[in-house]
Amino acid sequence: MPRGRVDEQVVPDLVAGGETAVEPAAAATAATAVTPPTRSRASSAWTARNAPADGDGNASSRLRSQRELFALPDFEQTYARMRDPQTGLQLADRRWRLLQYSHCFVGSEAVTWMHDKLGMTRDEAVRFGQQLMDAGVIHHVTYSEPFADAHFFYVFQEDEDTNVLNLKMIWDSSRRPRDPLQVATDLITRLALLCEEHREPPSYSEVDYEALKQSEEFRRYVFAASELQRVDLSGLSHEDKLCFFCNVYNALCLHAHIVHGAPTTMLRRWSFFKSLSYRIAGVDFSLDDIEHGVLRGNQTRPYGLIRQFRPGNPRMQYVLSRRDPRVHFVISAGTQSDPPMRILDGENIEEELHFAAEAFLDHTCKVHPESNEVVLPRIFSWYRDDFVRGDLELLRWILPYLGVDKRRALQQMLDKATDEGSVSIRYESFTWNAEARFHATVVRQKRRRLERERSATPHSPPADPEGSAAANSAA
């Protein structure tokens, strides 16, 4: 959805995580002193690691060369032991000279831990640590050193603050990803169910995003989203691509709300939609990339001058060949003025698009025969060229999606219209207040069950024995 481009100006590229700190190598002990890498070396290492993947860039090459670490017996249990707050690796904020690095561990201490807890020799522990680095599970704080039995600082990828929201875990290259449509549908379903479980009393209309963010279920969702890194989109039809990217858009937007909060200013919205992304099939897609590049057929953003993708951009291969303006009624930025988020199953995309347009337009369009005025959602102002150009033509486009009474009144107004100014159109203002609403059978069923439980025990937190199972089965 619009996603807030009104009065948009050219502004500096604001990254949600702030400026990137350039850091020398971690301190070595006095006996094994090392020369810290130069500022330029660390900077280039950070840039190579965090730059958006463009299909053939450094990040996607690293994914292709990832070792099959996860095929090792009991790796998941080993990883959980390493992460255990009481008995695992000692994660802490550590300093080297004037710089501080958050939530990191020391290489030599990790080797000692693997020796004591896993029964490895120190050489075996170093090799295992390097395997973890090759697989993208851990990395040196400046991406400049291999794993070593030394006083170097390392961090778990899970703890990395990155604008690519599904890189908390690197997808296991030995596991073949599922069908892309299934992955996308499962992710948005899982996230929608989590939102239902975290609605706040007394009205249960708002989601407690902070509690959701801290939950173990959301952590599992973030790991599950890593499957998008390796999905194969090459065989998708036009309809399948539309379904896939609509579901991914909704999941990414909701994920971004949970992690970074609702964008409350124009500059924050600019950064939110431009910078926050998922890695999909080895390429990073922001919300703007999906909406304006893929779903709208590589158009400019509202009030923009340049198409979303330039020639040669690897994302061009996923651009929809036919534009359907009804996609605006199935994707949502999670605000009060957006349509509810829909979970598309792709079985009959034409029917799903029609029902979405019908539900949103009949609810939001206002027809006033006495003043010969029609009030429309702001989306029709922002994206007029996606629909039709003339006012009367636009009203005729809307007509089939209105309820009986509104349709009859508008038809009578159009029958009397003699020129473009005969019927005036006014556009509603857009309300950016966050509101997670869903239009999906599985979510409605979940909400009804939770409402029954809450009404049965009004003074106690709702028990939800089926919640985790439902979320897991959705994913």
From TrEMBL:
Domain DEP intervals: 85-158
Biological processes, Gene Ontology terms: intracellular signal transduction
Disordered: annotated segments: 1-61, 448-475
Pfam families xrefs: DEP, DUF547
Biased composition (Low complexity): 15-38
InterPro entries registered for this protein in UniProt: DEP_dom, DUF547, WH-like_DNA-bd_sf, WH_DNA-bd_sf
Domain of life: Eukaryota
Protein name: DEP domain-containing protein
Organism encoding this protein: Cyanidium caldarium (Red alga)
